[in-house]
Amino acid sequence: MIGELDADAVVEYFRGKNILITGSTGFLGKVLVEKILRVQPDVEKLFLLVRAVDVESAKQRVQTEVTGREIFGILKDKHGDGFEAFIEEKICPLPGDIMYENFGLGNTQLTGLYRDTDIIINGAATTNFFERYDVAFDSNVLGAKHICRFAKNCAKLKLLLHVSTGKKQQPSYVAGEQEGLLLEKPFLMGETLKGGMHLDIESELKLIEDTRRELKANCSSERAEKKTMKELGLKRAREFGWPNTYVFTKAIGEMLLGHMRGELPVVIFRPSIITSILKEPLPGWIEGVRTIDSVITAYAKQALSFFLVDLDKIMDVIPGDMVVNAMMVAMAAHSEEQAQTIYHVTSSLRNPAHYSHLADSGHRYFLHHPPSSGKNGEPVRVRKMRFFSTVPRCRAYMAIKYKLPLEVLPQFYSRFGFDILHLVNIALCGVLSRRYEELSRKYNYVMHLIELYAPYTLYNGCFDDINTERLRSRMKNKEQGRNGGYDFGFDPKSIDWDEYFYRIHIPGVIKYLSD
């Protein structure tokens, strides 16, 4: 462990280190890679494990999906014509996948990695809430197992940092469990969010394998297989108290890692909903639609006029650069400690952002910056969104707005006959059919968003961050480096949520995520 914990000591910690990073093509991974290279150009090597068939393909993916992105602009300006040479010297792309033993790497590559790796950062995961159970299990559960086994073979490993998710402790809004203050404690093997239930990982793996064999024996189509596996994941997740397959498999992966680690130094990060960059290197930059961003983009297009959310609930968001800052400080703080430490990198306890902050800031932003119509470029008239704080109220509104009109048209067809209404539809230039298709599409879209996000928009829990607060207190007022070139702040109290949403996050979502 380093002594004085300040920004300069954190930067110095990464000098000469060889770091294996999984998940570098994801949003958080890109922010992390850029930050390390920007603040410590004397890092020895970043080994980036990416899904690719060979080294050349891996290199191309890294160039296109990581170092070629907008957030590397400061580094490009700093190195000028030497940027590509710098990247080639510091980054080593590895074609592989955590779902395989030893990541599918060859013996020569493994020998070098076992010898040289100082730090492992596991950020790889499938983040689709309703992913196929087999796919999510391979990546989020078996991936954690393979990472742990690999780490134990590294001769000079100082730390394994595993990025999990705070959301895995959030149950289905129907179950109503796990409310109140949620502590920074590990999941024990077999632990579930439902009392009296026991989770057997081997049994889950067998269930997946048996289902695969059954589908194959029945010659099921690819579409049928995908549907069955998605439904199986959701069923198993909810049976044990989790809202979806993603958070369920992430929880299993975390408990497996804790069970297997032995004396391996492990830090587990559980960020809440990660949002756009607050400060550096590019405020507002974001990639991949986060939990709340689907609603923002839909509202910008006026494709969503209402939503299921209690505006008084805490949404618990944290900017991506703050998560990366905390990760780097934690790596320096816990290097070579033969222990497991868990961090909730969240805002719900220290500086809660309520859904009303986002709703008010969003309406104000689009009033001042009305989006343009795709047809003629005219500004779209922005209507204030309606919010329903309970499921019954939302369902009643949905029934009147969508369900009733959708049921009326088929009854007309039945009563007056298809031919007559078909002629009427032609006479009206297809208005009836287009209206029916539009209502059906909107109904399915809104129902999808509600099913996806209701466990979070009606959630009553709050994440304790006592470990994270201790880490912050060790930094005190030394989060800024002496040369002023880097910042390791991760205190959510420094954020004015209304200003952040209005001036940074919402403009960032519109700029980087809108079609």
TrEMBL record:
Domain Fatty acyl-CoA reductase C-terminal span(s) in chain numbering: 421-513
Cite the GO molecular-function annotations of the record.
alcohol-forming long-chain fatty acyl-CoA reductase activity; alcohol-forming very long-chain fatty acyl-CoA reductase activity
Q: Which residues form the Thioester reductase (TE) domain?
A: 21-327
- Which Pfam families does the annotation name? NAD_binding_4, Sterile
Question: Which parts of the chain are coiled coil?
Answer: 198-232
| Chain's role | Catalyzes the reduction of fatty acyl-CoA to fatty alcohols.
Q: Into which family does the record put it?
A: Belongs to the fatty acyl-CoA reductase family.
Specify the protein name.
Answer: Fatty acyl-CoA reductase
